[in-house]
Amino acid sequence: MRRLTLSLLLGALGALSPLTQAAPGAVQWQIDTGAPVRAAPVLAGDLLIVGNFAGKLEALEWPSRKPRWQLMLQGALSSQPTLAGDKLYVQTNRNVYALSAKDGRILWQRDLGDQGDWRGFRLWDTFQGSPLLHGNQLLVGFGDHLYSLSPADGKTRWRHETRYRLMATPTVAGDRVLIADGDGELAALALATGKPLWRQQPSRDTVQSRIAVWQGLGIYGSRDAAVHAFSLADGKEAWRASHGTSWVVGSALVRDNVAYIGSSDGMFFQALDAASGRELWRVDTGQNAFTAPVFANGQLLLATGDAYQLDRPGRVTAVGLDGKRRWQAELPAGLFGQPAVVGDTLVVGAENGRLYGVSLR
């Protein structure tokens, strides 16, 4: 096991700008993490945990944002840490870790293989799913395998090989695990054993959208320029909503029988009837959407950016459930990491390495 250095942060991580106006979309504060932030932050008690693409994971006291601890992990970090009680489960493109959320101590780590140096990859190929804790199993999509690990010590319970790389967090639906790989193959596996229950091939394009479950259907986006819905029973397609020639990279948020999802090159945000795939409304974003929308204060929030010029400004767009834009905030760089709602603040990372707090009221 390679040695990792754990140290307390000495001094400020970056400038903390005060709230200058009490209005939705106003930037309340910002912190420099030192590398692009493509991993969603997570609140662990009174600590805000954030990781960057260089592999740095740090804990900030909330709401003061005073540094508590910092840890340098091996590999690129582009997925949200998973919180379970006082433990964090974190995945990079090299290892899986269990950490103490309180002080950052490494409880165990698993080397599942080196997926290479992602720094030369295009943006859209640098994402991976988060570990998923379900009962006594930690489900991890790593390279072309789905692993079931013991949360206590990281030992393998079972392993399932896929044809291509997994880029999305797996989904548990009852007694099965749902995954989709880089060749577009869907599969349902028995949760207890990893044994395949069914496989389907609705397309041959990469899926990096997590499967959302709604009333017996799985709903997800694909680089084949469509949103798909399939039956959880056998994987057969229920409906397909075309996005023309635009990839659908981000995941869907399903609320009250409606699936909300963004489009990449199509540069729009839409609402679909979850039962039929019929479009209910769409809103122009003017930028590429790689994240799932989040819901807060009666509105949908979508983070976007220019996937071809990462240093161009990014945006947070707030849309009502009726499809009417409420406000739009511009930030200095592209937003491709999943944002998190913490109280009345949207916390979102950017390609310039900064973490921003955006007012929701």
Short description:
The protein has 361 residues and is an all-beta fold. Helices cover 0% and strands 45% of the residues. The chain is globular, with a radius of gyration of 19 Å.
Strand count, sense and barrel status of the largest sheet are: 5 strands, antiparallel
**Class by SSE composition:** mainly beta
Which regions contain 5 or more consecutive residues with pLDDT less than 50? 1-20
| Total of helices | 0
Strand residue percentage: over 45%
Can you give the mean pLDDT?
Answer: 92
Strand ordering within the main sheet: 1-6-5-4-3
N-to-C span: 47 Å
**Rg (C-alpha, Å):** 19 Å
- Large-scale geometry: globular
Helix share of residues?
A: under 10%
The total of beta strands comes to 33
Describe this structure in words.
By secondary structure, the chain is mainly β. The chain is built from no helices and 33 strands. It has a five-stranded antiparallel β-sheet, with no helix packed on it. Strands 2-33-32-31 form a four-stranded antiparallel β-sheet, with no helix packed on it. Strand 8 and strand 9 form a beta hairpin. Mean pLDDT is 92; it is low at 1-20.
